[in-house]
Design a protein that fits this description.
CATH architecture: Ribbon
Distance between the termini: 38 Å
Helix content: 40-55%
Order of helices and strands: EEHEEHH
Number of helices: 3
Shape: elongated
Structural class: alpha+beta
CATH topology: Pemi-like Protein 1, Chain: D
CATH class: Mainly Beta
Number of strands: 4
Strand order of the largest sheet: 1-2
Number of domains: 1
Strand content: 25-35%
Length: 75
């Protein structure tokens, strides 16, 4: 699915309006929170999942703390 989205002003910020079809595919509605993740193919939007967010925080912390070790393992 491809959708052309227009950036609009929301107060002092910018935002986009998601068409109903996208909201349905994400299984979200007005007021829900989305999680944006950068991937090699661009940004990925998914419904916010508290457990996933906590797991990502832990993974990012481990990667920061063990950066040198992870580089060695990647060789």
């Amino acid at each position: 699915m491809t959708a052309k989205l227009k950036i609009t002003t929301v107060g002092n910020s910018a935002g986009i309006v998601l068409p109903r079809e996208i909201l349905e595919r994400l299984r979200v509605r007005k007021g829900d929170t989305l999680y944006a993740t950068e991937t090699p193919n661009g940004l990925e939007l998914r419904p916010f999942d508290e457990e996933f967010a906590e797991d990502m925080e832990i993974a990012e912390r481990v990667m920061r703390e063990n950066r040198d070790l992870l580089r060695k393992l990647a060789e």
